[in-house]
User: Fold Lipopolysaccharide12-N-acetylglucosamine transferase from Salmonella enterica subsp. arizonae.
Amino acid sequence: MLKERSDIELVVVGDYMNKSKGEKAAYQREVRELAERLKPHCHMLGGVAPEKIYSYYSLADLVVIPSQFQEPFCMVAIEAMGTGKPVLVSTRGGMTEFVKENETGYHLQEPMTPLTIAQDIEKVLDAPDLSNIANNGRKYVLENYLWWHVTNKFEKVIEKWFD
Assistant:
């Protein structure tokens, strides 16, 4: 990808040094090795405090979330969409409930490999409707996931329990 897009920068947020076992440890090791080969275009930030994460979204042209497990819900995708950034997410877990392909975001193809992820990133960055999709994602989050929306929905569920 760097051959075609020399201006690309990869910023990885998350605790990549966390001591994991088994497959996850092997995956983390592979990510660290790839990141080392991509320097100076790859920046491994490690864990970032929640109150500082928003400053990184503003730097992004695209937020990619290649989850390796069945995440029931992904706050990172909601946060990125809420800031108006396009998202490209794994289809594993619950993200497909709110990241609708070509409506509010984009899906990574399975099986996810470094090659397919790179292909998906290029496809999304070249999409003519990228800004419209990002705006749709932001609108969806503002209409469904602001705290007062969530609180109202939760209160209605509780009220039904006690009716």
Q: What stands out?
A: The radius of gyration is 17 Å. Residues 1-47 form one domain. Strands lie at 10-13, 42-46, 63-65, 87-89, 106-107.
